[in-house]
Amino acid sequence: MMDKAGTEKPLTGIRVIEVGQLLAGPFTGTMLAYYGAEVIKVEPPGAGDPIRQWREVKNGTSLWWRSLGRNKKCITLDLKTDKGREILKDLIMTGDVLIENFRPGVMEKWGLGPDFFESNHPSLVYARISGYGQDGPLAQKPGFASVCEGFSGFRYVNGFPDQAPVRPNLSMGDSLASLHAAFGILMALHHRNKTSSGTGQVVDVALYESMFNMMEAVVPEYSGAGVVRQPSGTTVTGIVPTNTYRCGDGKYVVIGGNGDSIFKRLMEAIGRVDLANDERLSTNQGRVDNEPEIDQVLSDWTGSLSSAEVLACLEEVRVPSGPIYNVEDMFNDPQYKARGMLETVEVEGESLTIPAIAPKLSVTPGSTEWPGPAVGSHNKEILMDMLGMEEAELESLKEQGVL
């Protein structure tokens, strides 16, 4: 795959078969497709992936799907039928990577587990995403992101003391699992390509483990000091000041003044030279010990000014700070525009803005070539051109409900 400037993308020549649904598996495929992999998405006939109908729907299709399905070739197969599974097997045999996020054991029951391909297609990288991984006592437990975020320890530290843990209004577990899966796939491809055997391997990604990877010092602090990290609202435990403050215009800003020299500049900027020179507050630990006092001082200051005035003042003295953006703010911000983080595609004759995908590569960047297509858009291309079927056979499979 080439980008719009004609540059070959870094994953050009890699074929990925995606049989996952909803978010964790499909977002993995989205990232690989963005950087040039040929991603063939297999969906059930009819409505396709359920995410096509989630949240805001326009002209019968979720707007989210136009972003999540970008650059993918979409075919339909009823995997509950023998013929559907047979075709999928043939398709996987042509691929470099398989992405699946069924419940552990489903692919084995269908005769499509890793053991079959280790013998018949040893170069395949077989990526599996599930709630709790492919083994262990919880492997068969349903693994939705919301549940796995709690099991990982993430939800416990996210919220306010003495209140119910808070969930971010995003599927963090799914998205982070996708990032781990994409990273694992690339490592497995690199290993395959640098060894003489050219063998693939299984990439086993668990949602809860992907969240667990984000838990920083929680484990060693408990092991070494017996400390159980607690929720801390809008602050971060053990680093002061770093918090969210309400301004006089009702808007919120984030201030990160936790470096020793930064804190001194911050206090001088808000007119509290006494605190800037206070020995109690010259180190982070001293500031942690006096966090309520510092936060009250900063809250009083921000509350007396507009958010624009607060940010202008802090920018002048090089104190890290910024606004709390919603999506409308993102659309209007010159930084987002300058970095190309908002891409425009055409859907049924109308323009639609979808997010670009990071990271940015200077020589072989990724790009969106087309938005998420309709269900089964590439049936003929994939099944006829790639697998050698005749058009009459496709029509027969369609009548049987296989496609």
Question: Could you characterize what this model shows?
Answer:
- The structure is a single chain.
- Helix 1 (24-34) packs across helix 8.
- The protein has two domains: 15-214 and 339-400, 3-Layer(aba) Sandwich (Rossmann fold), CATH 3.40.50; 242-246 and 252-323, formyl-coa transferase, domain 3 (2-Layer Sandwich).
- Strand 1, helix 1 (24-34) and strand 2 (38-43) form a beta-alpha-beta unit.
- The protein has 19 helices and 13 strands.
- By secondary structure, it is of the alpha/beta class.
- The mean pLDDT is 95.
Topology:
Layout: E1 15-18, H1 24-34, E2 38-43, E3 57-58, E4 61-62, H2 63-68, E5 72-76, H3 82-93, E6 97-100, H4 106-109, H5 114-120, E7 125-130, H6 145-151, H7 154-157, H8 172-194, E8 202-206, H9 207-212, H10 218-225, E9 242-246, E10 252-256, H11 260-269, H12 273-276, H13 284-289, H14 291-303, H15 307-316, E11 321-323, H16 327-332, H17 334-338, E12 342-347, E13 350-355, H18 379-386, H19 391-400
Parallel strand pairs: 1-2, 1-6, 2-5, 6-7, 7-8
Antiparallel strand pairs: 3-4, 9-10, 10-11, 12-13
Helix pairs in contact: 1-8
* Biggest pleated-sheet summary: 6 strands, parallel
Percent of residues in beta strands? 5-15%
Helix content: 25-40%
Shape: elongated
Annotated CATH topology of the largest domain: Rossmann fold
Question: Which structural class is indicated by helix and strand composition?
Answer: alpha/beta
CATH class of the largest domain: Alpha Beta
User: Number of helix segments?
Assistant: 19
CATH architecture of the largest domain: 3-Layer(aba) Sandwich
List low-pLDDT spans. none
N- and C-termini, Cα separation: 26 Å
Question: Strands of the largest sheet, in order across it?
Answer: 5-2-1-6-7-8
Overall pLDDT: 95
Q: Can you identify the CATH superfamily of the largest domain? A: Crotonobetainyl-coa:carnitine coa-transferase, domain 1
Oligomer: single chain
Number of structurally distinct domains: 2
Radius of gyration: 25 Å
How many beta strands in the DSSP annotation?
13
